[in-house]
Specification:
It is a single chain. This protein is α/β, with parallel strands linked by helices. The protein has 4 domains: 108 residues, Carbon monoxide dehydrogenase alpha subunit. Chain M, domain 1 (Helicase, Ruva Protein, domain 3), CATH 1.10.8.190; 197 residues, Rossmann fold (3-Layer(aba) Sandwich), CATH 3.40.50; 145 residues, Bifunctional carbon monoxide dehydrogenase/acetyl-coa synthase(codh/acs), Chain M, domain 3, CATH 3.30.1650; 227 residues, 3-Layer(aba) Sandwich (Bifunctional carbon monoxide dehydrogenase/acetyl-coa synthase(codh/acs), Chain M, domain 5), CATH 3.40.1470. It has 23 helices and 23 strands. It has a 6-stranded parallel sheet, sandwiched between helices. Strand 1, helix 7 and strand 2 form a beta-alpha-beta unit. The longest helix has 29 residues. The chain is globular.
Length: 759
Amino acid sequence: MSRYIATRAIRGAHTVVNEFEGLLQKALNEKGAETPISFPNTAYYLPFIFGMTGQTVEKLGDLEPVLTRAKNLLHPVPPDRRWTPYLGETLDAGMATLFAEEGIEAVRFIYGSEPQRLAGFHLAGGTSFTNPEFQKNGDGHLNGPIDDIQLRSWGIQLVDGRMPGFAAIVGCAKSNEVAVKIVRELQRRNILTFLSGNINGRSIIHQLMEEGVELGYDTYTVPFGLDTYSAIYALGFAARSALTFGGMKGGQAKDILMYNKNRVFAFVLALGEVDDIKYATAAGAINFGFPVIADTIIPEILPTGVTTYEHVVSMPFNEIEGKDDLERAEKMVQKCIEIRGLKLKMTEVPVPVSYGSAFEGEVVRKNDMRIEFGGKKSRCFEYLRMLDFDAIEDGKVIIVGEGFENQPAGAAMEMGIVIDVAGRKMQKDFEPVLERQVHHFVNGASGIQHIGQRDIAWIRISKAAADKGFSLKHFGDILHARFHSEFGAIVDKVQVTIYTEPAKVEHWLAAARAAYDERNERVGNMTDESVEEFYSCTLCQSFAPNHLCIVTPERLGLCGAYNWLDCKASFQINPTGPNQPIKKGATLDPSKGYWQGANEFTEGASHQQVHEVAVYSIMENPMTACGCFECIAMVIPEANGVMVVSREDTSMTPAGMTFSTLAGMAGGGLQTPGIMGHGKFYLLSPKFVSADGGFKRVVWMSSILKEQMAEQLKKVAEREGDPDLLNKICDERVATDVEGLVAFVTEKNHPALSMPSLM
């Protein structure tokens, strides 16, 4: 153990804890102990503190025992002439620092100084903080803590390998160019990146802002704050991952730390001078099993025999071999990845712009747009079809019509993308599965925005991408490379034809719509009774070891990303992967959804934690969930019905809890009668909680769901024999308590009131 590091970490911990004590005392005197305190729209009431202690911090006075705990973890600063510090003392100092930093940030929220202001800054994508004093769309402030909605929406990417881990960058790079290179290399590898800290008042956030790099949820690069304290949001994110997906409970400190060491692949990159507070915060990160890599000369910690990742590594930037600073930056990122042992899934795509999942949420604004296809001004569609081998020339990209080069900036054009595929294991049923991937594949190109699918696709190309040479042909190159990479087991040939000639667009659009209709009819006729096997989805077991989904034709996975056909295709691609066929076996109870084969598979795949699942019930042995579900359904006994809460809904619910709090009851691989996570399109299925009365049981629903799915839900209401049912379902705009809900459904004569008692 380095005496130098230990001394500075312990000294830094004393500094942070003392600041926390002073700030807390000031707040108690000025605001009072009963002042509410929280991170906006995050679960677990200060997640690091809750995770490590089990204590919920809901008001200012709740921080006093946290301060006491932090003080008790402090050890004396080692004297100059005596060897006293050990690894344990240093790790204690790190934990004390994290307790104090989370407390400091929470108190700052009371004073309105979090999230931190930064004049002229614009967040890309959403933010949980909606204080009206800030300008529209997040202008003027940094992100602060990760929104709980965003954490859960990232869940599926974390478990399926698209997002292999996260990096916490603290400080300031050697130059703006190096800062951009570091971030682009991390984005290219789809690594979620958190930014905080400064060197002499200058942060990597300033550097990226000056270079026009978009920061926010949509770009996988999230700016927490300009000081080191804001790095606590990254460690809070790690703690929440264990609580959200791993089924951990508050106070299971050792389990949460080990979960992160083994399952959450993260590292800290310290840029520039490392001061006492950075050493102390780094000591906190080491508790999680996250190595710390510095680009300056510092003493190293390279333990062997007992630990694996708890390293402090010195990589002096100017000593890295490379022809220039940009190459040195690339090598530094690669070394960080090697040290933490991240497993990367990368595909080389022959396009002139950066490419990776980190760019999937990128928005091309009107002023930055070179050309657009679809939207309000033109038509754009995508159509994938299976053809015979001889009809396709692999890798061929055909452009029928003019490119956009002669169009004025900001113009709109019509476009149709027809993808022809052939493969020995390709099936007609896989066409829509593959077609849906076009959205993700195209969005991976930096400077390209893709929204929608089928005949409502909307694509924008930015001026920056066009200036780098991006052309229509590159859409075909992307699709060829990605289909071979992701679906090589079933696709042997890919040919892409791009139509911009209006008459051809018209012709192929009609052909595509005929195919869409035929598919809808084919898939719509599939029922759970019409197939001999279901499919498992154990993808999330990397985060939630005992959870699995049983995916049927009439019940998709709870994340909303996998339906029965998706799983069938996935099994063809990877026969040993997370999607395995489940022979239904003997039907034990057709109304509740019990099958012998499904129960046997569940018991084995859940490591004997779950013995049986009623696929159609919320009241009896409901399906387990990890944490990335789109909705939560919960029984409201007073209304004899079920409420459905969208993860995008931050309001209070009639259950007296927000989505974030409810999610702690439904997630983590738990089987809790009366509450379950599910995909939003499960609402449309005839099998939605059919054992308990079906859709007619829904008495309350988040308004965002009612609006997003209005037309589809109207059809469900008609199917259920009550065309006006949607108007009888309450939402947060009407009532957020049980009394208001009961009054509303009584006034509307909701059918649930006359149905048999759920309890």
